[in-house]
C-alpha cells in the first residue's frame, strides 16, 4: 500500500532502531487494481469529469481505495471538485462509506471544507445536500467530528463567525429529518 513501511527493530543491545523496508511486492493483478484506483483518485482530485467517466467505464470500481487510503469521492470533496463529486455519486459512489484512514467520512470532510475552504459556501452547502440525498447520514455519530454532523452544524450556528453556514446546514439536515446520534 505504501512505498515504504516503518518498523521497529531491536538491535543486539536492545536499543530501538527504526528501519525502512519495502513492502512485499504486489501481484500483477493487485498492482493493476491499485494503479487504476490511483488514476481515479487523481482524476477526481483534478476535477477531470471526462477522465473519471473513462476510468469508470473501463471497469474501475467507483469506491476503489488508492495508495493514499482514500476513495475518489474523498479526493473530490477535499479539493472542492464538486462537479466530479456529483458525477461519482451519480455513478454509485458511497456517500456514507466508512471513514478514510484519517477518520473523515465524506460528510465530515465536506463540513471541514465548509469552514476552512475559500470556495463559495453555498457551493459547499449544495455539495453537502448532494451527499445527504445520496445516503450520507448527518444524524449518525462521526468519530472525526466527535459528534453528529447535525450537532456540529448546531454548534456552528451558535457562533458569530460561523452562524450563517451553521444555519444553512441545519436547514439541509432538517430536510432529511434524521435524529441526532444522542436521540
Describe what is shown at a glance.
The protein is mainly alpha-helical. It is built from eight helices and four strands.
Write up what this structure looks like.
By secondary structure, the chain is mainly alpha-helical. The protein has 2 domains: 28-94, Ankyrin repeat-containing domain (Serine Threonine Protein Phosphatase 5, Tetratricopeptide repeat); 100-178. Helix content is 49%, strand content 9%. The chain is built from 8 helices and 4 strands, in the order E-E-H-H-H-H-H-H-E-E-H-H. The strands form 2 sheets. Strands 1-2 form a two-stranded antiparallel sheet. The chain has a two-stranded antiparallel ribbon with strand order 3-4. Strand 1 and strand 2 form a beta hairpin. Helix 1 (28-45) runs antiparallel to helix 2 (49-57) and helix 1 (28-45) runs parallel beside helix 3.
Task: Supply the key terms.
183 residues, single chain, two-stranded antiparallel ribbon, Serine Threonine Protein Phosphatase 5, Tetratricopeptide repeat, mainly alpha, elongated
The run of helices and strands is: EEHHHHHHEEHH
Give the number of DSSP strands: 4
Oligomer: single chain
- Secondary-structure content class: mainly alpha
Number of DSSP helical runs: 8
What shape does the CA trace take? elongated
Summed over residues and divided by their number, the pLDDT gives a mean of 82
Estimate what percentage of residues fall within beta strands: 5-15%
The neighbouring-strand order within the major sheet is 1-2
Catalogue the unreliable spans.
1-8
Query: What's the structural domain tally?
Result: 2
Amino acid at each position: 500500500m505504501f512505498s515504504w513501511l516503518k518498523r521497529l527493530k531491536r538491535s543486539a543491545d536492545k536499543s530501538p532502531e527504526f528501519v525502512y523496508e519495502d513492502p512485499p511486492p504486489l501481484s500483477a493483478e493487485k498492482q493493476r487494481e491499485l494503479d487504476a484506483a490511483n488514476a481515479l483518485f487523481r482524476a477526481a482530485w483534478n476535477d477531470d469529469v471526462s477522465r473519471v467517466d473513462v476510468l469508470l467505464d473501463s471497469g474501475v470500481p467507483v469506491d476503489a481505495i488508492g495508495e493514499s487510503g482514500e476513495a475518489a469521492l474523498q479526493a473530490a470533496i477535499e479539493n472542492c471538485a464538486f462537479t466530479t463529486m456529483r458525477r461519482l455519486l451519480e455513478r454509485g459512489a458511497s456517500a456514507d462509506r466508512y471513514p478514510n484512514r484519517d477518520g473523515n467520512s465524506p460528510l465530515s470532510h465536506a463540513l471541514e471544507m465548509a469552514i476552512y475552504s475559500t470556495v463559495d459556501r453555498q457551493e459547499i452547502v449544495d455539495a453537502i445536500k448532494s451527499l445527504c440525498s445520496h445516503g450520507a447520514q448527518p444524524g449518525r455519530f462521526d468519530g472525526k467530528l466527535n459528534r453528529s454532523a447535525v450537532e456540529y452544524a448546531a454548534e456552528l450556528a451558535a457562533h458569530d463567525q460561523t452562524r450563517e453556514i451553521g444555519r444553512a446546514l441545519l436547514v439541509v439536515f432538517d430536510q432529511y429529518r434524521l435524529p441526532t446520534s444522542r436521540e
